[in-house]
């Protein structure tokens, strides 16, 4: 399968000095679901923001290496052009317009992308089919939604343009386990049934490894471990560092095929 995203030996600095990430190399296949795992400050957000070219807003800069989306270097492209080319991003912190209703939030996203009326109607319908909870609350201001519903709305705002690659920055942060699972299940369905490639940054390692195909563990701005999600689920370092488990295989993981 062709790679929709290639991150090639990337180094990123902030303020021309602070080295945030280095030697980052990985790919996302066109039908891939790839997870970046790591503690606070390990470099997940920096990597995602580099891909959508939002780094400059934080005075960050790619100082080495290259990022290619769909075979093309992203460096000369604007964030807007990358959205038009097929990158959808759900930033950290569930960005939606709080005073606006669910429907208004989706319509605003559609309008900013200059979708036609028919396209907007279709996008709304798809959003409400994927997350029926949002359909029930379509006239509710986003401020009155639960954290999980706000995350669903933030994801749907990114999907309005039908991206080919969806970037998600810690979508399950602070959510109840059942809601976190619903969110990742929906993302996995999008990937499986609609062929949307996914790159997700997550601290919820156990959950993300259940859904991702491949994962990379970031530590202090560098990739420490890479592998299939199944391999990493069986890696003692993952159990001890990220799952808080002893380094002998817990029974629950024995059931998962290697
Ligand atoms: N705007 C910035 N200016 C300077 N340094 C920054 C900036 N943003 C991030 N960093 C530094 O870059 C490194 C990577 O941070 P980053 O936010 O990418 O990690 P993260 O894994 O996404 O963590 P979190 O889960 O907290 O978002 C950290 O050392 C952080 O302090």
TrEMBL record:
GO terms for molecular function: ATP binding; ATP hydrolysis activity; branched-chain amino acid transmembrane transporter activity. Residues 5-245 form the ABC transporter domain. This is Branched-chain amino acid transport system ATP-binding protein. Keywords: Amino-acid transport, ATP-binding, Nucleotide-binding, Transport. PROSITE patterns: ABC_TRANSPORTER_2. Belongs to the ABC transporter superfamily. GO terms for biological process: L-amino acid transport. SUPFAM superfamilies: P-loop containing nucleoside triphosphate hydrolases.
């Amino acid at each position: 399968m062709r790679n929709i995203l290639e991150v090639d030996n990337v180094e990123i600095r902030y303020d021309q000095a602070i080295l945030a990430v280095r030697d980052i190399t990985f790919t996302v296949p066109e039908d891939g679901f790839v997870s970046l795992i790591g503690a606070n400050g390990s470099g997940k957000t920096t990597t995602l923001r580099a891909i959508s070219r939002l780094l400059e807003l934080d005075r960050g800069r790619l100082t080495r290496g290259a990022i290619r989306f769909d075979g093309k270097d992203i460096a000369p492209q604007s964030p807007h052009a990358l959205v038009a080319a097929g990158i959808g991003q759900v930033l950290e912190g569930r960005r939606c317009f709080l005073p606006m209703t669910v429907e208004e939030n989706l319509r605003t996203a559609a309008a900013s992308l200059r979708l036609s009326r028919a396209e907007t109607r279709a996008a709304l319908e798809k959003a409400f089919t994927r997350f029926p909870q949002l359909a029930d609350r379509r006239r509710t201001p986003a401020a009155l939604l639960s954290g999980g519903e706000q995350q669903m709305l933030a994801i749907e705002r990114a999907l309005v343009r039908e991206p080919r690659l969806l970037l998600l920055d810690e979508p399950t942060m602070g959510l109840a386990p059942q809601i976190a699972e619903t969110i990742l299940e929906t993302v996995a369905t999008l990937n499986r049934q609609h062929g949307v490639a996914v790159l997700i940054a997550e601290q919820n390692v156990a959950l993300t490894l259940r859904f991702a195909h491949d994962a990379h563990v970031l530590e202090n701005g560098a990739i420490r471990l890479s592998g299939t999600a199944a391999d990493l689920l069986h890696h003692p370092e993952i159990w001890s560092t990220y799952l808080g488990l002893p380094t002998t295989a817990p029974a629950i993981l024995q059931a998962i095929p290697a």
